[in-house]
Write a structure and sequence with these properties.
alpha+beta, three-stranded antiparallel beta sheet, elongated
Length: 74
């Protein structure tokens, strides 16, 4: 009986330690904006391929939408 308790405690400790290094996952919205192209500070004025939304685009980049508006990703 003591062996079972010891094994259970070791298993629980291993699970807790393994979870210590895990980071929270970012949930991306499941929709696509009508994006013509993307620009990012790191690429200057170069027009980059369109991405669905800011979740799939690096922070600081701008989505240029087909209706002429812009969305800055933060």
């Amino acid at each position: 009986m003591a062996t079972r308790i010891t094994c259970a405690l070791l298993l629980i400790g291993a699970v807790l330690l393994a979870g210590d290094g895990m980071e929270a996952a970012l949930a991306c919205p499941q929709y696509c904006l009508d994006v013509d192209y993307v620009t990012c500070p790191s690429s200057g004025s170069q027009k980059l391929p369109a991405r669905c939304n800011c979740c799939m685009t690096p922070k600081g980049c701008t989505l240029h939408l087909s209706d002429g508006t812009q969305q800055i990703c933060s």
